[in-house]
Amino acid sequence: xxxxxxxxxxxxxxxxxxxxxxxxxxxxxxxxxxxxxxxxxxxxxxxxxxxxxxxxxxxxxxxxxxxxxxxxxxxxxxxxxxxxxxxxxxxxxxxxxxxxxxxxxxxxxxxxxxxxxxxxxxxxxxxxxxxxxxxxxxxxxxxxxxxxxxxxxxxxxxxxxxxxxxxxxxxxxxxxxxxxxxxxxxxxxxxxxxxxxxxxxxxxxxxxxxxxxxxxxxxxxxxxxxxxxxxxxxxxxxxxxxxxxxxxxxxxxxxxxxxxxxxxxxxxxxxxxxxxxxxxxxxxxxxxxxxxxxxxxxxxxxxxxxxxxxxxxxxxxxxxxxxxxxxxxxxxxxxxxxxxxxxxxxxxxxxxxxxxxxxxxxxxxxxxxxxxxxxxxxxxxxxxxxxxxxxxxxxxxxxxxxxxxxxxxxxxxxxxxxxxxxxxxxxxxxxxxxxxxxxxxxxxxxx
Length: 447
Description:
By secondary structure, the protein is of the alpha+beta class. It has nine helices and 25 strands. The longest helix is centred in the middle third of the chain and has 17 residues. It is globular and about 75 Å long. The N terminus and C terminus are likely disordered.
């Protein structure tokens, strides 16, 4: 019992890092993840036995560690990753939530899902092939989603005789490209996921490399979960009005604080109506509190009886976002069907969903040279481009550069509810890529 208690106390004091892996087909993403889990002793005995059994059935002498993450039958049969595989593991220094994303071009949209909440992205490159188009695509997605830390893992160094010039050339090319996108921090590590070089243990074959292993970097990279310094935002999810004998006049607005902190007595504005009031009370876990902060789920009570419903946004009166019906954004199109000018869609932003129409698609990003292809008229699956959307009702939308949580949205097919596009309001790429002033000039991007 003491051991369980000590483990629980240890987990409560360690930080959490969410990270995603990405790369081209056969670059070894799943093998790297499997090696991380295996060498950090995060694999249960029965899981390892199952992998060893499956590997023997495929005629392999050594266990195929990629099978620890490739759980779908089609993935195991084809030897590729199709869906995003989430894994949880922990070391004495930190807890991790890992998203292993696919490498095929047609599954790039899955990386958007995996990286949307990540604080770090590991981009793998095959040392024999170097930086390819899919590498650039994944770097662009990481920059677009404002992932603050990017690790370049140059894999399969054992197949190029652990040659330092090969690693140096790939690291220089990728770093220049990612820096042009405005990625604030890039760390290059030479590895062999199959042999275990520089994954968890330092390599005996690359004495020319003096940096950290992948796990060492994951354990020590600075991660900030402090959302209290961000612009305070509270999307209303549900109106609580019990109308019982015990609570005849109770009216509360429940939801999760997206960013910042709220205090009793603070002047607030309800958007999009623009009505103002003050916070009369905050209820958390059945008790009244004086202050609440992100990401707590609370119920806020206002001093004035004003019309507030699901989808409204409560913000400080002196720090409220602008309300607009014209949304300009950078998007990644994730649906098989294209997105076209004039198309009617639903726009989902936090807890609010409104009707909208695609007014314009000014450009599509060419990943080879970061040039903008003007007026494409439509975006196909996995395309990254700029769109202008007109909504039927006003939205309180932050710039994605200021907040990943309240600056993002989805475009949805009104016919069947399919997610069409993931959008980032405003200029989502940093100033290094756009040549304009942007909030990403800071060394760390805001969450």
